Amino acid sequence: MLYRKYQPAPPLQPFVECYFVWDSEQNLPEAFRVESPPNGFGSIVLNYGGTYAIQNPKHSVLEVPAAFITGQATHSYQLTLHDSIHMVGIVFKPTGLSNLFGLPMYEFSDERFDLLAVLGEKVQGLYDRIGEAPDMATRVTLLEQFLLYRLSLLKNPLNRTDYAANLIVEKRGVININELIGDLYICRRQFERQFLHKIGVSAKYYARIRRISYLCAELASNRWNVSDWHEIIYKAGYYDQSHFIKDFTGFTGKSPSLYVKSNIELANYLRDE
């Protein structure tokens, strides 16, 4: 499988983590399944390949629209894909979707909503143009033009909530939220309300998501020596083994040792060129 990332233009970098194109080079085996831990980023995805479904704690089976928008994944989820994969999408910074489109992100957690229903009929033309584009670069350019137009309509500047969410990402979730609120000189109630609106979960829960996301990425890519769990626990910012195991199992549904042996994470199948 081919998975290629593209970086956004400078004006969009505060809002967009990356664009991506994902293609299968041949037809998939029947009911091809992969899993993904929560990563802390919302996205918009346009699918031109076979249909697919997701399973998560909220949905036993959710058929995914051809063009969809999704918010925070609060736990690991599984994808079941059919036929072929031809997708292009936008991965947003924590507050990017809310800022560019004015969306209350708590409504989008663990969901895949039809993009047309959320943003209106104007995105149908975008979907059609991207589907007719001759190559990957052109598809990404069309997505970026769409976002640049949305940016031109944006009146509100980034605020301390955006800064806090990005700092949680930068610190890989290892951060004291109470101290962060104090450092920002912001009302706790106002901060919690804005954070839930812009990101979709509380700041403390978001920090846990980012810590698990980083940990799973490192384990799946074999960058850490899994024979020394004490070192992994320390690197991930946990104070003791029981806390680490409880948190990891709660998010992924697997113990850390089982995850290392049997994970079918999406990252294992992607070839980034």
From TrEMBL:
Domain of life: Bacteria
Xref: SMART domains: HTH_ARAC
InterPro entries noted in UniProt: AraC_XylS_family_regulators, DUF6597, Homeodomain-like_sf, HTH_AraC
Keywords: DNA-binding, Transcription, Transcription regulation
Domain HTH araC/xylS-type: start-end pairs: 169-262
PANTHER family membership: HTH-TYPE TRANSCRIPTIONAL ACTIVATOR RHAS, HTH-TYPE TRANSCRIPTIONAL ACTIVATOR RHAS-RELATED
Name this polypeptide is given: AraC family transcriptional regulator
Originating species: Nibrella saemangeumensis
